[in-house]
Amino acid sequence: MLHYVTINIDGAIIRAPKGTSVLDTAIEYGICIPHLCHVPGLSDIGACRLCIVENVVNGHSQITTSCTLKVQEGMVIRSNTERIRRLRHNIAELLVAEAPNSRAIQDIAVRCGVKKVRYPFRNNNCVLCGRCVRACSEIWHANAIGFIGRGKERHVERPLNLREEFCKGCDYCIQICPMTITPCDGPMKTGEEYLCGKCESQLIVTENIPEKCVWCELGKSFCGRYSGG
Amino acid sequence: MSSLQLESILKGRSSQPHLLIEVLQDVQESYGYIPEDAFREISKTLGVPLIEVYRVASFYKAFKLKPSGKYVITICNGTACHVRGSKLLLDQAVSQLGIQPGEVTDDGLFSIECVNCLGACALGPIASENGSFHHHMTPAKLRKFIESIRRKEMEVPSNA
Amino acid sequence: MPKLATKEDLQAMERQLILDRKKVIKTVIICGGTGCKASRSQSVIDAINNELLTQEMESAVQLRVTGCHGFCEQGPIVVIEPDNTFYCHVTPEDAHDIVAGTLKNGEIIERLLYTDPVSGRKIRTELEIPFYQAQDRQLLSHNREINPYSIEDYIANGGFSALSKAVDGLTPEEIIHEVKVSGLRGRGGGGFPTGRKWTQCHQAPGDEKYVICNADEGDPGAYMDRCVLEGNPYLVLEGMMIGAYAVGAQKGYIYVRNEYPLAVKHSRLAVQQARKYGLLGEGILGSSFSFDVDVARGGGAFVCGESTALMASLEGKVGEPHPKDVHTAVNGLWNKPTLLNNVETWANIPPIILKGAKWFSSKGTKGSKGTKIIALTGRIKNTGLVEIAMGTTIRDIVFDIGGGAMDGKAIKAVQTGGPSGGCLPVEEFDLPIDFDVLHEAGSMVGSGGMVVMDESSCMVDVANYFLTFLQDESCGLCVPCRLGIDRMLEIITDITEGCGTPAQIDLLEELADTVTQASLCGLGKTAANPVLSTLRYFREEYEAHINDKKCPAGVCKALIEYYIDPEKCTGCGVCKSACIHGAISGEKKELHIIDPALCQKCGICINECKFEAIQVK
Question: Min CA distance, A151 vs chain C (Å)?
């Protein structure tokens, strides 16, 4: 039997089953909270921090990720305050500067209000969102890849860098990766670290970024399903 | 590589995944690093996926995936030693030996490690070599010390 | 060893031990702490041992090797009881004189006494030394009395009587109330009210609970916990036992960082001995309280000082922190209620139970009670461990206890609280050591590390140092910490290399704010403090680097030049032959010159020159 709790997100009074996350609940009710590392069906790790919200406890705002926050009776959540928008903007900006090759990340950045990037671009092919690692472990139980190393050295690798018999060749990691929708002719060349503008992403093309949520349309560019991208 | 040590380390610990770090520490102490073969044995015995063993071994600084040099020059990089000039010591070691911290020289003689505070701050900056402390070090003293080890090694013919 | 089955057994043993010890005429106490060990105190210990045997005094004199005495700058330290004669900088060669002179005939060896740097006079006893006089050594003073290998020493000094009082006469609620009223706040850095944490854990539902001692002291330059754990592990153990009794835990762990092998060894020995006497195990001291402890080693990760990362490490996993929407006191190790406290916090518990909350809260300020152990290091005369009452000002610590600047340079700042803390300039030195006051000022008490910096320290370089440290230690899971620290470091590096722009300072501040608010764990949330506090108090140094392309302290290599002072150079040629980059040229007895294009600023020539002719500009 499902137990329900009542929570307040941005003024909307919502009933949600106990044990669900605030993010899932919000999405279910059409309140769009940007996210990257969250995938329905996989565990949530709170890595990208894009889905942060303000959790008001005793009049005090605590900032926490909505994907890891489980609903509690009487919870008051604010998902779209000035403070949260600013933080999301800065986080998205960091992500774009890190991996500008990804159209999906450019789309998220647009959603978060990024118009220009104040950091020198890097040419990384991975933002360590962990989607591939979790999918390999939780859906396929193959454990063929994982996070190796710490801090700046953290990266995704096979055990001992060998092609092990663990890999089932399902290619799910490739399907679910936000980097695999590359719009440009290829990765940037050294000395040419800027957005080329050739892709369909709106990040540098337009000055007038629409106020309404573009997430639902653009978010489909990488939904982890076979329905294309 | 003797597998007897590994066997005795793993004895009585099968199917206990929470002992992973302790097992790796014992292996590190016994062998001086974590040999590749050890990974598979540990994974099988403890019941931990191979990727997870590799993950834990790569996360913690205590575990080395390659053997260290014969002489490990450890430079204390604590805040107190830093304001007493430990950066210059590190630069000296790096330029003299031609390797970065964590690496081994080609002849296998030296490796450099940085540690975040040995707790002997009154005597800083400190460089230690295989457990013996050298205090109030300067780049000049360090250079002489490394050269003296090199000279010692050249005098004693070592087996390749 | 017979087990101590009841409170009366413990008291009887204490009485007997005291009687036995009265038979000893003199005691030689030698500090065996890591600091003194690095000064080769082991040779001193061996030498004195040999002398005692050679001069046939081993039955009349007891030799006690203890943990750290705190005055590390003056080690190796030897103290003679009962006269309390304090000898410092003792060498193995002094052993004969100490045994034949002081121990046999009561003679004082002048050359080994402490010399007061101001008056020049010799001081005989510890308590007269200014370094010790200004302190309030509630916890550290015990180190002198106890050989860490001997639980008997601890019991002879009243050890475990707090535990006995607790399990035999107080309810858990009474104990927790006492801790709450005492005002004790976490000594590991968080400063969280200890009583509140104990209440949360006590009230959490469930029969399976744990207590943990966090000995993962990771702040570089801080070694307080190490000295308490190495020198007096029983005090910490007793605190944990009382805590376990209060919240209803049956199992405890002491998690010691990997880099402290001696602390691991001493803790394990302490646990073994406690088990032998029945002080750990089933039915402790005749009560229904059962408790046991294991000692676990860290793997070398600063982030494991964070409570959820520490618990993950205990579970055999990587030390990645988890969101703490539910406190670990309710959901911690193995998802069970877990009471985690720092070494020094645990060490404060037995005295609070024995002497009462009122005694503890009579020291300190309104918001910060009791005493705190500070690791005083850096560019200061008297480096070591000091214990002061909360509320003591920074000025008193730096000048009265620390003895002021080493090398006569002007003191510029102190850095408190490790990589999570901040730098405070001399103008703020009248601030007291108080959790809330220092937090307001942009720093923190933290675990108690205090590094003194003088005019030879560049504050931008200090920010660079801490960011590099944090980047290395970050677990890398969340974006604000991993990428945010990286980008902050990129900007600061640009500034130290002379490529900084004023717009970068604004970006740095905004980025610092994002990292602070959006990071998952305490490491990320406090990572920006070194940057923010140096920007707040030392903005002019940043501006000098950016606008003038100069490093006023002469540290940032890209902005300085080595040159030879023509008034001091004698042309001796020592620097020329020492320079491994061939950057110095000059004829004998003539002014030598450094070629800036070849100079790598390695510092070797400065070390070698006996005339201090080589300067930095």
Answer: 4
Cβ–Cβ contact C302 with B under 8 A: yes
CA atoms of B85 and A128, how far apart (whole Å): 36
Alpha-carbon radius of gyration of chain C = 26
Say which amino acid occupies C104.
Answer: K
Assigned token pair, C242: 């009382």
pLDDT in tens, C564-599: 888 888 888 888 888 888 888 888 888 888 898 888
Confirm or reject contact between A149 and chain C (CB < 8 A): yes
Q: Is B39 at the interface with chain A, CB within 8 A? A: yes
Q: Which amino acid is at B34?
A: I
* DSSP-derived secondary structure for B57-126: HHHSTT--SSPPPSEEEEEE--HHHHHTTHHHHHHHHHHHH---TT-B-TTS-EEEEEES--S-GGG-S-
Choose from A57, A68, A94 for mutation: most chain C CBs within 10 A: A94
Instruction: Tell me the pLDDT band of A229, cut-offs 50, 70 and 90.
Output: very low
Q: What is the pLDDT of residue B102?
A: 84
Where are chain C's structural domains? 18-133, 151-361, 371-457, 460-548, 561-616
pLDDT of residue C130: 85
Question: CATH number of C561-616: 3.40.50.2300, 3.30.70.20, 3.10.450.60, 3.40.309.10?
Answer: 3.30.70.20
Is the domain of A188 the same as that of A94?
yes
Establish whether the linkage from the previous residue to C419 is cis, with ω within 30° of 0: no
Q: Which of C483, C486, C489, C525 to mutate to test the interface with A (most CBs of A within 10 A)?
A: C483
Complex ipTM value:
0.89
Mutation to test the C interface, candidates B116, B129, B132, most C Cβ within 10 Å: B116
**Chain C interface includes A52 (CB < 8 A):** yes
| CATH fold for the domain made of C18-133 | Glutaredoxin (3.40.30)
Q: Does A57 touch chain C (CB under 8 A)?
A: no
The confidence score (pLDDT) of residue A198 equals: 60
Cβ-based contacts under 8 A for chains A and B: 35
Surface of B (63-102) touching C: CB under 8 A: 63, 77-80, 82-85, 88, 91-92, 95
- The whole-number average pLDDT for the span A139-151 is 92
Residues of chain C whose C-beta is under 8 A from some C-beta in A?
301, 318, 323, 325, 471-480, 482-484, 486-487, 490, 507, 510-511, 514, 517-520
C602-606 contact pairs (CB < 8 A, 24+): C602/B88, C602/B91, C602/B92, C602/B95, C602/B139, C603/B85, C603/B88, C603/B92, C603/B138, C603/B139, C603/B140, C604/B92, C604/B138, C604/B139, C604/B140, C604/B143, C604/C578, C604/C579, C604/C580, C605/C562, C605/C575, C605/C578, C605/C579, C606/C562
Nearest to C10 by CA among C145, C144, C157: C157
Contact A18, A71 (CB under 8 A): yes
Averaged pLDDT, B99-107 = 89
Chain A: closest CA distance from residue B116 (Å): 16
Name the burial class of residue C45, with classes exposed (0-12), middle (13-18) and buried (19+) by CB atoms within 10 angstroms of its CB: buried
Closest CB from A45, A91, A153 relative to C477: A45
Residue C155 confidence (pLDDT) above 80: yes
Chains near A with 3+ CB pairs less than 8 A apart are B, C
Name the residue in chain B with its Cα closest to that of C466: B79
In this predicted structure, the answer to whether residue C443 has a pLDDT above a threshold of 80 is yes
Mind listing the pLDDT tens digit for each residue in C524-537?
999 999 999 999 99
Domains of chain B: 3-59 (no CATH), 71-155 (3.40.30.10)
**Which among B20, B63, B121 has CB closest to C316?**
B20
